[in-house]
Amino acid sequence: MENNGVRIERSKRLDGIGEYYFSRRLREIAEIEAATGRRIIKLAMGSPDLPPAPCVVETLCETAHRPDVHRYMSYRGEPILRRAFADWYRRWYRVELDPEREVLPLLGSKEGIMHVCMAFLDPGDRVLVPDPGYPTYSAAVRLAGGEIVPYPLDEENDFLPDFCALEQAAAGVKLMFVNYPNMPTGRTPTPELFSRLVDFGRRHNILIVHDNPYSFVRNDSRPLSILEVEGAREVALELNSLSKGHSMAGWRVGVAVGRREWLDAILTFKSNMDTGMFYPVQAAAAEALSLGEAWFDELNAIYREREKAGSKLLDTLGCTYRPHQAGLFIWARLPDAFIGDCYDFSDMVLDRCDVFLTPGGIFGSQGLRYIRITLCYPAEVLEEAAQRIRERLHR
């Protein structure tokens, strides 16, 4: 039947964006499963399968029974959550924050990346984006009309920025995205790294945006914030999240911390996009932020066991990887003898073994010889995936 409806073209700002890789690829894999009956182990996204602490869920349920919490909430976040974030930063990062002026709760830090770009970028503004790096950085810059200036993170430089190359690329740059502990490489930060970033931003008048959701997951070092560096508040904003370290990904609780005028700019955009966070979620998030070392010790003990199983899987594939990676993933280099790139390798393992590995190329051109596996599955699932690879690939 012919469609005679009106023809509406989509916005040109979506050109070059494309559907998020995991949204498309996991849908394709689900179609394969439905058509063939195959059960594919999907070692893809970093979506924690572990629940939050019981006291967090209890606080959510108890607070939701109150009759006064179902109205719209403050665009700036309720005092209970702003104070909890300030206390959390003081306790873990040794950073003093004014909860009234320097803390802005967000509906997730991924959303915060978009807010930052819309609040600070004009068409044509140049933005330094890590390669490999979280694809949302590039997508948000493009949607805001900015120009991406990729900076490589390569294994030879231990997945740290090359500051000599950054000096050459700094002309006309307005904003720089930084992410340590790094996703996808698992590289942890050092105080020296943050000091150099603050100095770089100050000298070139660049806003440094540090995305910091992984500092409590498999991190052998103490958690670090870029705001610990002297003078950082004049140069840097930090985004943080409860998704990973508190197993609250679906709750969508994040935060931006830093200078009031910059948070006010973000709020100007944010307040036109949402109407605040459900109060019981804020109360439960405040409870989560009060958790002590025992919570993180228990969480990381589970991830360490999964890391052992994931490492054996990668050994079976002949991949190599750096020890002491932080975060929810293991980043691994393809076998030198493999002819092809990460997409070919991922497709081969999927076709032969019914195991899906994330191709590193989705994070940038520097990832074409890498794959990434998630640790957001029980160790038994990772062991089953390794067994399939041993039995099917080598056969």
Please describe what this structure looks like.
The structure is a single chain. The chain has twelve helices and twelve strands. Helix 4 crosses helix 8. The protein is an alpha/beta fold and 395 residues long. The strands form two sheets. The protein has a seven-stranded mixed sheet, with helices on both faces. Strand 5, helix 7 (191-204) and strand 6 form a beta-alpha-beta unit.
Question: Could you list some keywords that capture this structure?
Answer:
395 residues, alpha/beta
Share in helix: 40-55%
Largest sheet: 7 strands, mixed
Number of helices: 12
> What is the N-to-C succession of helices and strands?
HEHHEHEHEHEHEEEHHHEEHEEH
Rough outline: globular
Query: How many strands appear in the DSSP assignment?
Result: 12
Classify the beta-strand content into a percent band.
Answer: 5-15%
Q: Can you give the mean pLDDT? A: 94
From the helix content, strand content and strand pairing, which structural class follows?
alpha/beta
Radius of gyration over all CA atoms, rounded? 22 Å
Strand order of the largest sheet: 2-8-7-6-5-3-4
Q: Are there runs of 5+ residues with pLDDT below 50, and where?
A: none
Head-to-tail CA distance between termini: 50 Å
